[in-house]
Amino acid sequence: MDETERIATSPSSKGRETSEFLMRIVRTLSHSADFEQREKEKARIDKAYKQSDKKLGELVTAHYEDLTKVTQDFSRMSKCINDSRERITKIREDLSSCKTLLHCKRDELRRLWIEGVEHKAMVALLDQVELIKEVPVKLDNFIISKHYLHATDLLVNAVAKLEKPLAGIDALRDLKAELIARNEQLHETLIEELNKQIYAAVPDQSVSLKRSSSYRRGSNLTKQLSDPECKQTKPTELLKPPEMMDLNKEIKEDLNGNPEENPAHFIAVLVEALFVLRKIPDSAERNKKMKDPLGIKSKIEPELSAIVARTSQQVVDSYAQQGESLSSQNQPRFLLELLENVFHQFRNVARMHKIVLRNLQRIIVSGVPVRNELLYDMNDVWSKIQAVLELVLREYLDVQTSSRQRAPTSFDEPSTDINSYFSKKKPTKSKKISLFRFDASIHAMSTNSYVDDNMTFDTGNLFHVNLLSEVGLGKHQMEMCKPSVNNITAIFMPLEAFIKEVEDAVACQDGTSSLQSFVTEFIQNIFLGQVHATVSSSIAAATKGFDALRHVVDHKTQKDLGVTRPLLTSTVTVDRNIRKLQELMQSLPTYGDQFLNMICNILKEYRDTCNSAYRGIVQIESDEKRVISATWAKDEDISRFLRSLPSWRSLQMSERQDLSKKLCSEEEIRTLNSKEALILISNLSSEAIIPQQEIITDVTQMRTIANVHESLEWFAGRLRQFCELLSARSPNSMNSIELSTREYPPVSDKSLESLKMLVKDFQDLAEICLLLLHLEVRVHCFYFLLPVAKQSNYAGPIDDLDPDSNVLKLNKDLSAMEEMLVQSLQPQKFKYIFESLGFLVSSILMSSIQYLKKINENGIKKMCRNLFAIQQNLTNITMARETDLDHARQYYELLYMNPDDVLSLIVEKGPDYSYTEYVSLFQLYQKSHPHIKPANLDTLLHKLEEVMNKTQNGSST
Question: Which of 162, 369, 380 is nearest to 275 (CA)?
Fold first, then answer.
């Protein structure tokens, strides 16, 4: 398509002017070269025109209605425009006429305008007066609803207007004086409300004081904070640390909400209101004039004391409602509950003070010209908290009374000597007794009371005493529980945790807070000394005296301790005191080493006491020589051999092991018993008789030794468990022992090793006592049986057939020992004492055949009666037939036979006895029958040797 068609059909050409379109057509035709071409062009243009005209007709037909409407609208708009032009022309004429008229009355209009301005000013002033008159009512409404920021703004603005814009209105003087007074009242109200928010943010009623089966750790307070029914439940913003508060955030107050729903925001509003009132000092000079213009710092200590008093009263009332009397029960758990609740409230008080100080800092950061000096800081708050707690602790711990009874401070040293509590006291010189004294006179009593009051005044703090009397704290303290030094054991752990919080919050110069210093000084200078004195006096009362180790506990105490045999009263007393010290180690873990050293010192002294008592029993008068059994029990070789025997090893087996399992066969046991008997016989079967002073003749002393053994073994076992628990807490321990609920604190390795050595000493002494009893019974057998062969006549007349007197004495002695020991020793230990005693008796009597000078049939019968009497007695004691005595009786019955018959019996049945025993038998037979010549005896002995060799070779093959 050429340019002409493009122009004709182009949509953009439709909006152009017709003349421009025609000019283009003319230019296009004028450029044609010949007529024919112009005709063609003309024909083409005509054709295009017709097509356009046709299309236009079609469009007009299609849009006829729209076209008609457009035409009508255009006509109407054109008419409106013409009307507007006419009105504008008329307005111009009117304005020109008005201008001319106003120019003529200009002075009069100016006067009217000035009067109008004056009237407007007067109306505005009257409006302000009306608003000022409504200020007291609005102020009261704001204060009632606790919208203090609006009240402060309203009051400050009203006073400012009365002092400047409305200063000349005499009718407002009374209102001005009233608002100035209300200003001071509002200041006091704000301070009171601020203190209320600080000290009553967690109301006293929120502290649950109901009893429970165990000590609570603030769980009641936590439940109360999470209780939706609590009226003053802490919102989320309050739980946010004060350091996270936005210092640039503008403080606003919502008139439609409850201001106290958010205590943190409410405190910010109160501080902002105080700032609006200009009650925050803005210069150091004003600080000097107004020591505490906010009234917060001076009220910290009284308010904290009031919290303690109210909480104390609540504890008293809570338990009084349940019918309990706290004054009659010295239960420190009441004090613990009080302190836990007080700690919780003090933490919230500190948090509130931190919010207050943070808002004061916010005012300074905002750029307001306030001197960058806070009236107080958190160190002051924590200092007051520590002072109040120290005052409470002084009352409950009875510091003033206990400080007058201080014990030496060196008691907890490992080298401490407390022998004075156990050793015999030297006789003291009798003091002169005065005829009369004035101590009980009225004058003396009043003087002493005056001195005591002055001492209390000098050592105490008068401000604290007055403060207690004001809030009634002293009364409630006496109702809570009895003041005592021992109350520290129940409160030490939570108290130390709270002190740690205080030290973390306050940067102490020496790293120790004042409250920590007080607690440390109290424990080191008062509590530990009193514990030491109490424990020492208790142990001294149980161990002093000549018969201290003879007294045993009653059956009720035995049942409570779970033991079946009597224990020494002194041992149980020492154990109870040790248990108290162990509980103190758990209650006061910081001082674990001191208590452990105290335990070690007490154990050392009791060990020495037991050793002294043991020596007093086994030592012969004042000489260093001891009884035979004690000497042997101390001998390392004999003691090692006795401990290697199966009977001893069975005692050491644990209860978990199978006791029915035999450690050795009967043959091995018989061999070991024969070895024991040979050792005893080789040492005691000499020609000399055992002196009476070398045995224990008083069986009550043997009972004492048995009681010492049972007591020390029980005591050592309990101490061993204690050592295992301490070892499990040791930093270098690899044990995985299961600990109790309340763990022991870590202790020094030196103290722990010292304790283990003491446990070993007690165990060794207990084992020595048992070995001594084992040996003493056997020494008694030698003491009574050796004279049977050496001093008695066995070749007497026929009527002398009764058992030997020494045999009867032995039976009586064994029965007495059995009666004493069966009540003092456990069955397996009693069995150990009398087990294999028949073998020893038979060995003694068989070996004693060499001391018989002569024997006849009556003597043989007498010896057999001796053996039978002993056998019966031992059977009654051990409840088992002593076959070894049958063996000895059969040995003596061989004397009825001549040596040849004995040899034939050996050949026929084999030897039942050793070669030496047969030799002794043949020698006695030869002495008893003089017709047998010594040469014949040698022949018999030669035959005996040959028979023994043959039988031994035959048995070996």
Answer: 369
Q: pLDDT-based confidence at 424, cuts 50/70/90? A: very low
Asked whether the beta carbons of 834 and 878 are under 8 A apart, the reply is: yes
Chain centre distance of CA 790: 72
| Spatial contact of 305 and 467, defined as CB atoms under 8 Å apart | yes
- Asked if 609 contacts 592 with a C-beta cutoff of 8 angstroms, the reply is no
Per-residue pLDDT band for 707 (boundaries 50, 70, 90) equals very high
pLDDT for residue 248? 61
Once rounded to an integer, what is the mean pLDDT over residues 696-718? 92
Per-residue H/E/C for 570-609? HHHHHHHHHHHHHHHHHHCHHHHHHHHHHHHHHHHHHHHH
Q: Say if residues 529 and 406 touch (Cβ distance below 8 Å).
A: yes
Q: Are 866 and 845 in contact (CB under 8 A)?
A: yes
- Cα distance between residue 33 and residue 38, in whole Å: 8
Q: For the segment 732-785, what is each residue's pLDDT rounded down to a tens digit?
A: 544 433 434 457 888 888 999 999 999 999 999 999 999 999 999 999 998 898
0.90 surpassed by pTM: no
Q: Of the candidates 352, 356, 320, which has an alpha carbon nearest to the alpha carbon of residue 200?
A: 352
CB atoms inside a 10 Å sphere around CB 28: 16
* Eight-state DSSP code of residue 248: T
**Is 923 exposed, middle or buried (CB count within 10 Å of its CB: 0-12, 13-18, 19+)?**
middle
pLDDT per residue as tens digits for the range 671-695: 777 787 788 887 776 656 788 888 8
- Segment (H or E) for 131: helix 106-133
Question: What distance in Å separates the CA atoms of residue 563 and residue 711, rounded to the nearest whole number?
Answer: 10
Of 60 and 294, the structure prediction assigns the larger pLDDT to 60
CB-hemisphere CA count at 13 Å for 329? 13
Name which of 810, 827, 825, 784 is nearest 874 in CA terms.
Answer: 810
Query: How far does CA 469 lie from the centroid of its chain?
Result: 34
The amino acid present at 355, given as its one-letter code, is: I
What's the CA gap between 655 and 653, in Å, rounded?
7
Give the contacts of 570 (CB within 8 A, at least 6 positions apart).
539, 542, 543, 548, 549, 551, 606, 609
The torsion angles phi and psi of 555, rounded to 5 degrees, stand at: -70, -35
- Other C-beta atoms within 10 Å of 41: how many? 17
DSSP 595-660: HHHHHHHHHHHHHHHHHHHHHHHHB-TTSS-B-HHHHHHH-HHHHHHHHHSHHHHHHHS-TTS-TT
Report the half-sphere exposure of 368 (CA within 13 A, side-chain side): 19
Using CA atoms of 779, 782, 783, 785 in order, give the dihedral in degrees to the nearest 10.
150
Q: How far apart are CA 776 and CA 781, in angstroms?
A: 9
